[in-house]
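Progress note, project year one: complex with guanosine-5'-triphosphate.
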Amino acid sequence: MAKKAKARRTREVRADRALDTLPALATLTELPTYAQLSACERQRAAFEAARERASENGVEPDELALGCVVRLDRGFPAIVTQNALFRAEFATRLTKGDFSRVAVGDWVCARRPHGHDMGLIEEILPRESDIARWKGGNRGERQTLAANVDLVIVVQQLGSQEVDYARVARSAVIVRDCGAELAVVLSKADRAGAEGVARDLDALHEVLGDEVRLVVTLAGAEGDADIEAVRAVAEGHGVGFGEEGVRALVPEGTVAIVLGESGAGKSTLLNALLGRAVLETGAVRASDDAGRHTTVARRMVALPGAGIIVDEPGLRSLPLVGHERGLAKVFPDIAEEAVACRFRNCTHTHEPGCAVLAFADERGYAGRRLEAYLSLAHEMRQSKQTLDPDVVI
Ligand SMILES: Nc1nc2c(ncn2[C@@H]2O[C@H](COP(=O)(O)OP(=O)(O)OP(=O)(O)O)[C@@H](O)[C@H]2O)c(=O)[nH]1
Ligand SMILES: [Mg+2]
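Model obtained:
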């Protein structure tokens, strides 16, 4: 018993030390206020129920408040409520079991015992959306990147080579599988130049269709001739451009998250939207363009005159495990044909009676869209997850 108590004490001391190194919340001016966030009816009702349960267990009702997780620093949540902003830990019963991990954007029933700086998360309230990815392949676990966001902005950097449309398509499938809205920001357009941007927009329209919301951005000086050429290409393609284009994706009252590889320029973009360098940014490796995982915290950033965006650390991998519904949403035309193939396990490569190949043939449609679909479908088959019996890919 004494051993257990000692271990608990050591854990507490470690937690205190870790907390001491976190930024002081009062200095974080970019954090959203409670008024800028809004829980839905279902979450409000769940909070009232949670408050009742807690008071039945002897908690003073005025210690409890509806709160939103606005930051996670090394796993420590920061919570904003109507009257306060504070760091919190989990009530012990929340640290076990499936639902132990809280995400930025989560609405919670928070408790701040009188006379304490630190709060407690009593309950995580039901999520309206859950942006998650698999970690470590098909034996890994699902990691929620953010909860209750309205839109996912996939950030993909451009360069002298053709845009990595396969990665954008992969991200799109995961986002649509989570039930979230999707937009794609093509960053670093200065590196591709006007011609490169035109090439990449054509490729992405081919792969994702014309309805996908695209915005081309670059972090460059105003008045530069090249910027105007890039803007003209974006306008000519009917897509958004620059900070205004991104702001238009996230109107006041909405919450978005940026998702992309390390070094894609997510934090740089958010700094530009904020009009000051609030977030750390880092150089990419010259050899392969990869970033160095500069961003380590997950945090909400309230944009002046617009909504809220969650900045995230870059993601190394986005394994596809059981995202068939997302695939069907991104490629509805192909998925619809797949149902008509003679063989239910058709791979759409060589089988007789393949409706997908027949359709592609008829449309003269052997290009990037079909190729992206086939490679993602192949990977999902390989990941050997139980397929939803209603979906044929
Ligand atoms: N040429 C060019 N470089 C850019 C642009 N945007 C960002 N960069 C550079 O790209 C590098 C990475 O930018 P970050 O904003 O730190 O990237 P990030 O996506 O936040 O990376 P992580 O935090 O590691 O996930 C920095 O050196 C930026 O200066 C751009 O539009 N053009
Ligand atoms: Mg960053």
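The chain has three domains: 16-124, 130-311, 324-382.
The domain at 324-382 is CATH 1.10.40.50 (Ribonucleotide Reductase Protein R1; domain 1).
No further modelling is planned for this target in the current period.
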